[in-house]
Design goal:
262 residues; alpha/beta; 7-stranded parallel sheet; 7 strands; 15% strand; binds nicotinamide-adenine-dinucleotide; oxidoreductase; SDR family oxidoreductase; oxidoreductase activity; NAD(P)-bd_dom_sf; SDR_fam
Amino acid sequence: MSALLDGQTAVITGAASGNGRGIARRFAEEGADVVAADIQEEDRLGGQPTHELLEAETDVRAKYVECDVTDRESLESAVGAAEEFGGIDVMVNNAGIIGPQKPLTEVGYEEYRGLMEINLDGVYFGTQAAAAAMIEQEDDGSIVNMASAAGFEGYPNLTPYSTAKGGVRLFSYAAAADLGQHGVRVNSIHPGQIETAMSSEDMASDGSEPSEQSDQSSSGIPLGRPGSPEEVGDVVVFLASDLASYVTGESILIDGGLTNTG
Ligand code: NAD
């Protein structure tokens, strides 16, 4: 039986850890070659680098490229690295940080800009670089942008994060409108509480500051538990595959039902 992404090549940013690693693992299991693009090669929670893990556990080709998503040329190089595997078919703009967790009135401009450069500018540059390559290849493509449930709702003490993630959602709608004529689909995904280094980091910052994850106890989630990076990966596999050939300009919550209930 053929896998869903046989013969495809994906570039995944932030692929060293967490959601990016889970997405990369699911892509490899479905037959896609993977360019794991990240500022660091090591998984933030330890363990084998993603590309080594994929090559050990699956039959696909995988490689690491150093990439800082705040730098347009760095993203262009990461997209170019897919040529070794036949050219890019899927771009997953996943890299992101939680950023400052404090009341709006205490957020400094530098920390606000720092968050926006990674979480929003990085998605903009990554989508532009991938779309240019896909158009030049004259082949259909799929771009999946990582947002958050915070891109639908305002969470306290997370104004920069929520602003960027809402921006990713609307950016993806507009990019889908521009790129549909070229056969390039663009969608955003919106996880809730997913077990990654970012969520542990967030939990650890107990402080008195509510945050995206600490604000959402598992008991408030209809499915009663946090999600895993592989469950995020399942949705990205769907959006990348031909099963979603008529899906573009869509935003999908992956939050165990949290946002739209209660
Ligand atoms: P994580 O910290 O486990 O992984 C993030 C990865 O991004 C790391 O490997 C890191 O090195 C990389 N990265 C950071 N800055 C980068 C840069 N400038 N250039 C390239 N790579 C960079 O975090 P995660 O939870 O896996 O988060 C991944 C994405 O998922 C983020 O966009 C985050 O906002 C989103 N998200 C996470 C959750 C959650 O609960 N964990 C919920 C909703 C959305």
